[in-house]
Design a protein that fits this description.
This protein is mainly alpha-helical. The chain has one domain (7-118): Winged helix-like DNA-binding domain superfamily/Winged helix DNA-binding domain (Arc Repressor Mutant, subunit A, Orthogonal Bundle). The chain contains six helices and two strands, in the order ααααββαα. The protein has helices spanning 11-34, 38-49, 55-62, 66-78, 100-121, 126-145; strands at 82-86, 94-98. It has a two-stranded antiparallel ribbon. Strand 1 (82-86) and strand 2 form a beta hairpin. Helix 2 packs across helix 4. The longest helix has 24 residues, at 11-34. The two termini are 19 Å apart.
Length: 146
């Protein structure tokens, strides 16, 4: 490590580039196949995995801002992919669940996502993938402590 900041060698920049490139690439497939934006497919993925969340909880789990999640939820409700109910105890809190149509999209997105992941790591050894996952986990732990 040196004291010179070389952006192409700067880990946060490289991680952001990797994340953005991977997300953009798979987002094209989600848009083409299902007409979904990145926030929309993330909402579907989270609500599919954990039904009954509020939009705020979805925002926390997707690392998207509340406005992006709100827009995505509104579009998904209009498209009939998500059902929204309001909590009895707090009428301001909405509860989100996938509709039958949304579940079909979720299943299709999941299949496409897993195929994409397989293609992405194709040619890497199981040890490389395990090491990469371990390093990502360690970096997440470290950044939470900063």
């Amino acid at each position: 490590m040196t004291d010179d900041l070389i952006l192409d060698d700067f880990l946060p920049y490289r991680l952001a580039r990797l994340s953005s490139t991977v997300s953009t690439t798979i987002a094209r497939a989600y848009d083409k196949e299902f007409g979904l934006s990145i926030p929309e497919w993330r909402v579907i993925a989270i609500v599919g995995r954990t039904p009954g969340l509020s939009a705020v909880e979805v925002a926390e789990q997707t690392f998207l801002d509340k406005v992006a999640v709100s827009r995505a939820v509104t579009k998904l409700i209009k498209a009939g992919r998500i059902d929204r109910q309001f909590a009895d105890a707090d009428r301001r809190r909405s509860i989100l669940n996938l509709s039958e149509k949304g579940q079909e999209v979720h299943d299709g997105v999941a299949k496409l996502a897993l195929e994409f992941e397989r293609s992405l790591v194709e040619g890497l050894s199981d040890e490389d993938v395990a090491r990469f996952n371990h390093v990502m986990d360690r970096l997440l732990e470290k950044v939470r402590d900063l």
